[in-house]
């Protein structure tokens, strides 16, 4: 699943065959007029502009299993299409002529788009979602100089390259018959944050930013610009904020959550929650507002640590308070994810809460980073927080959405299929706070 990015290609523009199209239509059974027939042996090639990504399983096996899987499909496949940078509406038709199916679709780096969509034998079901794609290139706009995001090598140039290339990649678990991709003219919900927010490339790690698209209608795009090990200061230095500003449109929303790694600055004598942290928040808010965006502060969720009374013992209280104070001073919307994470963990309990955190090896718990289940719950908490904050973007949440952190979804009922790639390597971050 690795793909090496060429530094030269990130700074040039080109128009591929697919990039010139207004819509791209693919039929995995080859029977729909106006659609390009996709054969199982069509590996991705730049000349073709689409195809199956190499890896597990082989494209032929993936296509066969996905078409005839009675369940979610034990062997997901990865299918990529060359597209321009931006927001794209994806219309997926699912189902099998002979069997009942359930289909889950993730995009780019494991962003959850569709979850276990059922189809009876002979039934076809169509769903639509929006995927944001991007490149490192930064276009010059008022107040932002041209250039490129300073990607981390090899993490972003290899393991996370799918988030930065000129392809839209879908990870399909189940039975997909046709896929149509077309430009989406919708508002964007941008995310800035650390390893607890960004798109994690491999199991068992996941972050709430990857789960967030699941809870929105195709009337808004989620663009996750978070990265492991980072702070507000890194967002400025590596030009992640500039990248957002270069594509942000008036009315777009930017959710920002940092804090876990900012603690290192205190240890190094380079700042603190009520000094540099708040000042850097102010810099971000001012820049986003200058471009007509809505800047939203999110306090960092707590780590997994319990006292003898079964209550969470907080290690990020100062950063949560600093974020709240900054929001008040700047009159910016605020989502208190720190406060919401506590009843979530406490409802699961000291032992049960392990099910919400990554376990990269037997008996090894990462008490900072979450797994799919934990990230799914935190994403729900963020959407609930958006509603409480009165954000316009929250109007695009899926119908019937409701969530109380103190009443998390049962662990046993969680059935989002894992992605096939696994790592024992911990995301970048504060090594002293595992």
Automatic annotation (TrEMBL):
Signal sequence residues: 1-20
Record key words, sorted: Hydrolase, Signal
InterPro entries in the cross-refs: AGA-YXIM_GBD, Galactose-bd-like_sf, RhgT-like, SGNH_hydro, SGNH_hydro_sf
Pfam families to which the protein is assigned, alphabetical: AGA-YXIM_GBD (PF21254), Lipase_GDSL_2 (PF13472)
Biased composition (Basic and acidic residues): 423-434
UniProt-annotated stretches for the region Disordered: 409-434
Ranges of residues in domain SGNH hydrolase-type esterase: 191-345
Domain Beta-agarase/YXIM esterase-like galactose-binding: 24-108
CDD domains: Rhamnogalacturan_acetylesterase_like (cd01821)
GO molecular function, one term: hydrolase activity, acting on ester bonds
Taxonomy, superkingdom: Bacteria
UniProt keyword Ribosomal protein present: no
Family: Belongs to the 'GDSL' lipolytic enzyme family.
The name this protein goes by in its record: Rhamnogalacturonan acetylesterase
Species annotation: Pseudoduganella buxea
Organism classification: Bacteria, Pseudomonadati, Pseudomonadota, Betaproteobacteria, Burkholderiales
């Amino acid at each position: 699943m690795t793909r090496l990015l060429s530094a030269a290609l990130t700074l040039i523009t080109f128009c591929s065959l697919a990039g010139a199209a207004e819509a791209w239509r693919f039929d995995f059974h080859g029977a729909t007029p106006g659609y390009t027939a996709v054969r199982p042996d069509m590996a991705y090639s730049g000349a073709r502009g689409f195809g199956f990504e190499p890896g597990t399983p082989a494209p032929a096996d993936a296509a066969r299993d996905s078409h005839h899987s009675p369940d979610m499909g034990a062997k997901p496949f990865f299918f990529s299409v060359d597209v321009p940078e931006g927001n794209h509406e994806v219309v997926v038709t699912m189902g099998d002529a002979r069997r009942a199916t359930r289909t889950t679709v993730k995009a780019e780096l494991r962003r959850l788009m569709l979850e276990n969509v059922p189809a009876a034998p002979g039934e076809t079901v169509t769903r639509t979602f929006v995927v944001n794609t991007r490149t490192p290139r930064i276009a010059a706009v008022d107040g932002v100089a041209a250039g490129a995001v300073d990607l981390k090598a090899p993490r972003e140039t290899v393991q996370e390259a799918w988030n930065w290339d000129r392809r839209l990649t879908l990870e399909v678990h189940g039975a997909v018959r046709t896929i149509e991709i077309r430009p989406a003219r919708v508002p964007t919900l941008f995310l800035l944050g650390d390893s607890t927010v960004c798109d994690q490339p491999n199991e068992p790690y996941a972050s709430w930013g990857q789960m967030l698209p699941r809870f929105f209608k195709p009337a808004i795009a989620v663009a996750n610009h978070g990265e492991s090990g980072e702070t507000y200061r890194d967002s400025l230095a590596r030009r992640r904020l500039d990248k957002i500003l270069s594509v942000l449109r008036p009315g777009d929303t930017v959710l920002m959550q940092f804090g876990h790694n900012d603690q290192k600055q205190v240890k190094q004598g380079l700042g603190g929650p009520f000094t540099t942290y708040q000042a850097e928040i102010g810099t971000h808010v001012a820049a986003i507002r200058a471009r007509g965006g809505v800047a939203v502060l999110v306090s960092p969720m707590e780590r997994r640590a319990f006292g003898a009374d079964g209550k969470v013992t907080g290690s990020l209280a100062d950063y949560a308070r600093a974020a709240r104070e900054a929001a008040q001073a700047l009159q910016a919307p605020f989502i208190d994810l720190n406060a919401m994470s506590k009843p979530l963990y406490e409802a699961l309990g000291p032992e049960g809460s392990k099910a919400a955190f990554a376990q990269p090896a037997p008996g090894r718990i990462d008490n900072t980073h979450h797994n799919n289940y934990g990230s799914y719950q935190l994403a729900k908490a963020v959407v609930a927080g958006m509603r409480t904050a009165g954000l316009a973007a929250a109007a695009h949440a899926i119908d019937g959405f409701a969530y109380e952190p103190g009443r998390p979804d049962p662990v046993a009922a969680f059935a989002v299929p894992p992605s096939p790639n696994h790592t024992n390597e911990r995301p970048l971050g504060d090594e002293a706070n595992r």
